[in-house]
Amino acid sequence: MANHTILISKSGKEIPIADSGAPIKDEEGNIAGVVLVFRDITELRQAERKIKEYSDQLTLILDNIPGLIFYKDINNNFIRVNRALADGHNMTKEDLAGKSLFDLYPHDEAQAYWDDDLEVIKSGKPKLDIEEPWDTPEGRRWLNTSKIPLKDKKGEIYGIIGFSFDISELKKALSELKESEQRYKAQFEEAFDAIFLADPETGIIFDCNKAATELVRRDKSDIIGKHQKTIHPPERIKIGFSETFTKHLHKKRGQVLEARVITKNGDLKDVAITSSLIEIKGKTLMQGIFRDITQQKLAEEALKESEGIMRSILANSPDYILMVDKNCKIQFINRELFGEKMDDIVNRKISDLIQPEYQKIVENGIDQIFSKGNAENIKVTLLNQMGTKSVYEIRFGFNKSNRETIAAILILTDNTEKSHK
Fold first, then answer.
1. Domain residue ranges in the chain
2. What is the pLDDT of residues 351-379, one digit of tens each?
3. Edge-to-edge strand order for the sheet containing 14-25?
4. Distance in angstroms (rounded) separating the CA atoms of residues 166 and 133
């Protein structure tokens, strides 16, 4: 009889049955009738539908997992694969079924895969996180593969199931990270400035570069593991940390702060420090970059002393020394002139101080300084607030910056007595 026979009950309900029949024969062997046997298989059909639904759902899940999944027998043949694995070979899942590794890969590559499979089959133990290459039409990829033995109720191994996930991008990122760390380490060690890395909470120094050891004249082993306050003089320590460390940690992060460090033998050095928070191997650290400005400070002090001496010389010079710009405006005068304060003279025209008949001569001299770089000495008469005339000799010079004249220098020497002789 036909398979999938349906009987309809008196109430109209359809009942799936499995049927079978056998002939009834008389004494002479002639068929006299038929015996029909009907078995209600409603529950069987329901179970089959559930199994199919489960299988379809499992297939849907496996085909949408972003990885390669396969089930193989102990003879190295694929029984079932997911869509990702089939797509990777430009084949259908049905075409891959029954294929061996040796049907798909070069012998050496296939043998390497099969050796892993055999290890799992023989040991009965999973082999996890295998990193292996996978050559595809688009090029070589890298997989992280785990293989698990499949056992029946008796514990006999009848196959393996494997899961492979593409880690090519991860390997690339890790490689780039390693290269970046190596570059940072090289730059860190070779940096001209001293660099200290410290825990921002405890102040313990985590690492330092070669320049740091030279700055404080200590071995690296005498720095790492110590508190950052040990490289600063005691008077610069507040509440267990150096003043600059606390400021950088809170309101002054990224700013340049001047401080002092103390060497192993007690010498003090002036430094300019910048800081930032960085992350190394998942740990947040304070990176302090220390630039030795000791010589700069000494030079600044020497310059200030030199400037003080120069100011004293200028202030006590018997001559008047003026700096005048291209527009004949006074930028500087070394001392009071005829009772007028220096601030009252600066920014005035030079012509304000000179008798009208000499103004053009002086202005021409200034023009020559800016155009030619030199001018002849001249004599002029100046009239003070009391109406007394004085004769002065003017010598011209210049002040340059980046090879460009930025001011004319006028030195006025009183020649009144000589003129009366």
1. 5-40, 55-166, 193-296, 317-420
2. 888 888 889 999 999 999 999 988 999 99
3. 5-8, 14-25, 31-40
4. 10
Whether the Cβ atoms of residue 316 and residue 402 lie closer than 8 Å to each other: no
Residues 241 and 254: their CA atoms lie apart, in Å, by 18
Cα 142 → chain centroid: 26
Q: Would you say the pTM of this structure is higher than 0.85? A: no
What token pair was written down for 370?
A: 């800016």
Using alpha carbons, select from 299, 262, 257 the residue that is nearest to residue 275: 257
Residue partners of 89: CB distance under 8 A and separation at least 6: 96, 104
Which SS3 state, helix, strand or coil, does residue 63 take?
A: helix
128's tokens: 């996890």
Q: What is the DSSP string of 270-303?
A: EEEEEEEEEEETTEEEEEEEEEE-HHHHHHHHHH
Give the pairing of strands 404-414 and 320-324: antiparallel
Q: Can you read off the two tokens belonging to residue 101?
A: 């590794």
Nearest to 411, CA basis, from 369, 372, 360, 383: 369
Could you tell me the strand order of the sheet in which 378-383 lies? 330-333, 320-324, 404-414, 389-401, 378-383
CATH number for the domain whose boundaries are 317-420: 3.30.450.20
pLDDT band at residue 202 using 50, 70 and 90 as cut-offs: very high
Q: Each residue of 211-253: pLDDT tens digit?
A: 999 999 999 999 999 999 999 999 999 889 999 999 998 887 7
Q: What is the pLDDT of residues 302-354, one digit of tens each?
A: 888 877 877 787 878 889 999 999 999 999 998 888 888 889 999 999 888 88
Q: Where are the beta strands (DSSP E) in 152-252?
A: 157-166, 194-198, 205-208, 237-238, 241-242
Fold agreement (55-166, 317-420): yes
- Asked if CATH classification 3.30.930.30 holds for the domain at 193-296, the reply, yes or no, is no
Helix (H) or strand (E) holding 316: helix 294-316
Q: In 3-state terms, what secondary structure has residue 373?
A: coil
User: Quick one: tokens of 210?
Assistant: 């070669």
55-166 CATH: 3.30.450.20
